[in-house]
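Figure 2 data, in text form.
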Amino acid sequence: MNYLQHFDSEKIIEACIAGAGDFGRGMLRQARQMRNLSARIAVDVTAEIAAQALQRSGVPSDQIMVCQTKSEATSAWDKGFFIATGSLESVCHLPFDVVVESTGIPDIGARHAEIALQTGKHVGIATKETESVVGPYLTHLAERNDLLFTPLDGDQPSLLIGLVTWAETLGFEIVAAGKSSEYDFIWDEQEKVVWCNGIRYEASDLERFWALPDNQEVSAVAARSEVLSAIPQISVPDLCEMTNVANATGLVPDRPDFHAMVLRTHEVPTLLDHERFGGVLQGSGRLEVFNCLRRPDEVSFAGGVFVILRCEDSDSWELLRNKGHVLSRSGNSAMVYLPRHLLGLEAPISLLDAVLNKLPSGGGSAVWPHVDLVARANQDFASSQLLEMRGHHRHIEGLRPEIHQGAPLSHSSPVPFYLLPGAKIVRPIKAGKLITLADVDLPESHLHRLRLTQDAMFFNDTSSIMEHSQKETS
């Protein structure tokens, strides 16, 4: 595709960046290099922090106005200033086109998205945590208002949806699709250690499982994963992103906790194939995450996305194998992949498509709550304990993420993972149990309110369910 032709327009898209951390700041900087995109508004916890983000993205201080009120924001906009504010409400009356929600905080993401859609703005969502709980509702709310709620290129869900739909357009059978985990496992053969996310792990036995013997691939990979068991091999963000892809595409995990194997890049199509072809999968259309094992001088796959395709034409695929494409040992499947995601630096592509072409980077009207990201206790919990979200990876101590079939909130159904921060345990929970609504007292939040609205939209609306069933059947 010729992007210059695809986005051939004189219109300047105006964007508001809500959450000016690493992702949002990348967009602020990239917009300054683009002809069709302007990002003059930054929103963060305080207006002062937002101003610092604008400065770090290259905006001169004398071009930034710190605004606390709507009138101050209007004055700054009319004078051509960049606007720094601590409140999205103080700027949503301005004539910009799209809000980029990149705070990474589930409840704030829900509030910002709702405000934006209610005031006639498109929403580009980088806060995957919000999307995993109420993405289907916000997608359809936007559609009803002739707007878009869309994931953004630069994050794996959008890039993977693009790769999956590319393969579907070409008529390929999709055996599996997914991403590598965020951090590669880097093998230092001399020191007999593996480095991951800057941390050194002893791995003296790894050499035995570096190469996989023929017809023993599955057992060898299991042994390899055991050798490296001190390194986390699945994370909440990985499964959160796969939840959003599942709801956009209908692809589902092979098992709720994923296989999450430690694989070298060329091994991926061999292991992520049907069992009868030497892999681990029960069938096609599966979502998966793997951990990329490599030497320091090998190309990284950290956070990249892939699809595993069925090789129907053996002659063509053998030709492609000879050109360096990655095929399984059996020759029955092949991997096509993008070994990168560029965060806010490439996300503007999705903004251009949303505003200029009214095209989402996600599933659009096809989005449906097929699955939920939920939590299983991996320790005992006592009554009155509070669940707290922590760290860059937004994890909750003592809980393991899993993906299960989507269901409305009820006492017996698992609670979506990102409704649990701030929840109070109301009865003892044993390790190994899924956390249900009967186990916790959820705090009041925008996210909780929107989830109840989503449940009513998709699970109580008989006509909507019948329409979806007919689409599935056809």
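Caption note: Confidence is low (pLDDT under 50) at residues 462-474.
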